[in-house]
Amino acid sequence: MEPGRSPLAGGRAATLIVRVEDTTDGSVVEHTFAHSPVRIGRSARNELSLPHRFVSASHGVVEFSGHGRRYTDLGSTNGSVLDGDLVPPRVAVELGPGAELDIGPLRLTFPAPPIEVPALGPDAAHAAPPPAIRPGGITAVMQQLARAPTTEQSWQDVLFPGSVIGRFELVRELGRGSFGVVFEAEDRHLRRRVAFKAVRPGGSSQVLLRQERLQKEAEAIAQLTHPNIVTLYDAGTCQSGPYLVLELLRGATLQETMRRERLEVSRALEIAIEIAWALEHAHAAGVVHRDLKPANVFVCSTGAVKVLDFGIASVLGGEDVRAVGTPAYMAPEQWRNGRQDPRTDVFAAATMLCETLTGNLPYRVTRSSSAVLDPGARPAVEAPGVPGDLQALLRSALSADPAARPLNGRAWLDALLATQERLDRPNRLETWRARLQGRASRIPLRLVLGAVGVAAAGVALLYELLR
Ligand SMILES: Nc1ncnc2c1ncn2[C@@H]1O[C@H](COP(=O)(O)OP(=O)(O)O)[C@@H](O)[C@H]1O
Ligand SMILES: [Mg+2]
């Protein structure tokens, strides 16, 4: 690969501008987004947060690309109106030029972004097109990565803090998985910190497998651009073998977060929803992760959640549907080496949610077997404080039979959002009750006594008049 050339470079990034007018006072605010999708809702976890009481916690979502824009109402309480018509919930509708989307008295319009004109330099005519990524196949760009060997010696010689590899200076080790070792590194050209992931050393057959995994990872992430999926900046080879350059995440993996603290139901649900957004995007792009587990989910210090490690991801329709995952999160079809599809990821995502909520895995698992394979197996999803409808959702997503689970990331996301909306509602009632009580307690006693006195006098007068 050309040094410094990103496998992602060359594509013209689409931009979304949302103009929000409050028709009650005429105020207007304009927001610009570089990443699709843009989630719209009352809470701050949405990209476009509209903190008005008539907006649902997760109200709707706009997906956009260079080709167009679509809006989906996520089953919000008060609904969304597009050009005067109520938008049916959970159905994507096109946002044509001049579309007006009303959420209560808020009017959202979508002005066209300024057109980007590519600079016409002397090299413009010869500029290489972005590498085509053929679904299911290892791209030519990635094949180059496999050529350099990884041996214990070359690894020790190259991968250590202080080492300089091309334009990257390794700063410190961040973590290790079964295949890769990840360093924080300084990109000296762009003067930014990145994550540098290289293959771990091992026996030669192991190393070949790991290199192939790294290629697949690059290929899978290169097809995905999403705020809940770690971004791939670049890929290359050095003396120790292939490497990936990824967006550097600060915070901790979900595994570390769970070890440190027991998460509240609302936070556990929020994290599950963020993961579901990533799955919705990956599945729509034809990618199945197949190794979702808390060590592959990162909870950033900003609160954002990102899915990592697409090392054994498969591209739907590709030739390889078999791969091992991690026993505790593996669906029965993975244990049986059977056909895996988006429902395999739904099973793993539900296993993680169950673990964050209850502190335990839903099925007893050893390295070589899982209770999910027993006939009539039932997941353990009960724990104090876990609402009944969340338990019911987990039971369906953890079914041994894939046909009984939500179909894919989208269906899983919809079910989680609907549950969150239902759980949010009583809280809103409680807020109102607390506010009313707060107000009542601020009314002075003499006013209350006065009002009672006036009422009593009124009753006495009425009695006199009617007598
Ligand atoms: N982009 C990143 N930013 C910060 N830390 C990372 C990043 N990617 C991975 N890590 C850390 O490295 C560990 C191993 O990375 P992972 O991609 O899961 O490797 P493997 O493919 O070997 O499992 C993760 O659990 C995490 O702690
Ligand atoms: Mg991993």
Description:
This protein has 467 residues and is α+β, with helices and mostly antiparallel strands. It folds into 3 domains: 3-109, Sandwich (Tumour Suppressor Smad4), CATH 2.60.200.20; 135-247, Phosphorylase Kinase, domain 1 (2-Layer Sandwich), CATH 3.30.200; 251-419, Orthogonal Bundle (Transferase(Phosphotransferase), domain 1). The protein contains 10 helices and 22 strands. Helix 5 packs antiparallel against helix 7, helix 5 packs antiparallel against helix 9 (409-442) and helix 8 packs antiparallel against helix 9. The chain is globular. Residues 174-180, 182, 195, 197, 230, 246-249, 253, 295-296, 308-309, 311 line the site of adenosine-5'-diphosphate. InterPro entries: FHA_dom, Kinase-like_dom_sf, Prot_kinase_dom, Protein_kinase_ATP_BS, Ser/Thr_kinase_AS, SMAD_FHA_dom_sf. Keywords: ATP-binding, Kinase, Membrane, Nucleotide-binding, Transferase, Transmembrane, Transmembrane helix. Residues 38-87 form the FHA domain.
Helicity, as a percent range: 25-40%
Mean pLDDT comes to: 81
- What's the name of the CATH homologous superfamily of the largest domain? Transferase(Phosphotransferase) domain 1
Adjacency order of strands in the biggest sheet: 2-1-11-10-7-8
Uncertain regions: pLDDT < 50 for 5+ in a row?
A: 1-13, 116-149
End-to-end CA span: 103 Å
Radius of gyration, whole Å: 27 Å
